[in-house]
Design goal:
The protein starts with a strand and ends with a strand. It is of the alpha/beta class and 388 residues long. It is built from ten helices and 19 strands. It has a seven-stranded mixed beta sheet, sandwiched between helices. The chain has a five-stranded mixed beta sheet with strand order 1-3-4-5-2, with no helix packed on it. Strands 6-7-8-9-10 form a five-stranded mixed beta sheet. The longest helix has 19 residues.
């Protein structure tokens, strides 16, 4: 097996799984993209085994710290370990994330389950090289009716990989309908955002539903209506806003599936424009607002700009709320730390002239396990705020 040496090892010895190109002694361009390499320190002590991509700033992603072959048996064990963890944490569920990349020590691999449909994402050159074996392993273990490869995420371009998506088993003549805490959602895993649904907010949606029993509110950036329909099932009247016509149509369909079309309404509109119009009414009319925007920042160079956008959105939402109302606000960018997020909310409260109290601050669902030695694996912040 090919060897490569690290000039600096502290971060890696602390448990991080990424090796950057400037940390390597050898020139990474000597190695084939996606090939397996053994990592050593400058004293030639073994560190671990991973795969390399000379085209990426993240040159090596570590797969194991043990001396073991990285073969079909290796991936079979890792996948089985991840499935056993989900069974322990969640039991039998219609939908869940089965593999969360570095969080399951399989960097570059995502696997989501929607009933009998499996959606896989191969995000890196190393995982792309092992794609056929991994697809076959999942097929043998789970025997899904449908397998979809959603390799259309822009992160693949950083790896020098083409963007594509395909159904490699079965068909989607009938879309899967999942049950999330008694609420039904039709999922389109081929055309929807990411893999079709945002599984990472599941526990937060259920927690908010248990907190809000009625009233009138908004669901901003509502996508296919998951927050809205949960809240409507608890007796609330919700208006969801999203700029995607397809998302709004799917949200309306999901409301109808649950016979909640009278409680959950959806509007195709730009959220910023909608809030500007609402703020001009100068009313404090909402009992709750869900603010779950897309990631405004994809790199550390855009943090200042992103915080400005988060601040503007949150301050307007706070101004629109009744005294005693609840704002459920999120950020899904790991570049925005918890500390940055909380500081932004404090400034937003000052800008809005409202007093806020933090009821809870949570992260992603447990099927997205966080590797504490890798802050990049914790990306979601979700705060429930009492607005006074």
């Amino acid at each position: 097996m090919q060897k490569i040496h690290l000039k600096r090892t502290k971060r890696i010895n602390d448990g991080h799984l990424w090796v950057f190109s400037n940390e390597l002694y050898e020139n990474p361009k000597k190695y084939a993209s996606g090939s397996i390499v053994e990592l050593y320190d400058m004293k030639d002590a073994f560190i671990g085994t991973g795969y390399i991509n000379p085209q990426s700033l993240i040159s090596v992603r570590i797969l194991t710290r043990d001396r073991e072959p990285v073969d079909k048996e290796f991936f079979s064990k890792r996948i089985k370990d991840a499935l056993m963890l989900r069974e322990k944490l969640l039991g039998a569920r219609d939908a869940m994330r089965l593999i969360y990349s570095e969080g399951d020590f399989l960097p570059g691999l995502i696997a989501d389950k929607y009933k009998n449909c499996l959606v896989l994402q191969f995000l890196t050159a190393g995982m792309e090289a092992m794609k056929e074996s991994i697809v076959n392993l999942f097929d043998e273990m789970l025997m899904p009716e449908v397998i979809i490869l959603r390799n259309d995420g822009r992160s693949r371009t950083l790896e020098g990989l083409a963007l594509n998506k395909e159904i490699v088993k079965g068909n989607l003549d009938t879309l899967p309908v999942i049950n999330e805490d008694g609420i039904l959602f039709e999922i389109n895993p081929y055309e929807g955002q990411k893999t079709g649904f945002f599984l990472d907010q599941r526990e937060n949606r259920i927690a908010l539903k248990n907190l809000i029993k009625g009233g009138k509110g908004l669901d901003l950036f509502c996508y296919t209506g998951a927050w809205s329909i949960h809240l409507a099932s608890a007796g609330a009247e919700v208006t969801g806003i999203d700029e995607s016509e397809k998302a709004v149509a799917q949200a309306q369909k999901n409301a109808e599936i649950n016979n909640l079309q009278d409680k959950a309404k959806f509007i195709k509109d730009d959220v910023f424009a909608f809030l500007k119009s609402e703020s001009q009414k100068n009313e404090q009319g909402y009992d709750f607002i869900v603010l779950d925007p897309p990631a405004f920042v994809k790199s550390s160079s855009r943090i200042k700009e992103a915080l400005k956008a988060y601040r503007a959105l949150n301050s307007i939402c706070m101004r629109l709320m009744k005294k005693g109302g609840i704002l459920a606000t999120s950020s899904c960018s790991y570049h925005i730390s918890r500390e940055m997020f909380i500081d932004m909310l404090k400034v937003s409260a000052r800008d809005s002239g409202r007093r806020i109290r933090l009821l809870s601050l949570s992260s992603q669902s447990p099927d997205h396990p966080i590797l504490l030695s890798m802050p990049e694996t914790e990306y979601l912040k979700c705060a429930f705020l009492l607005i006074e």
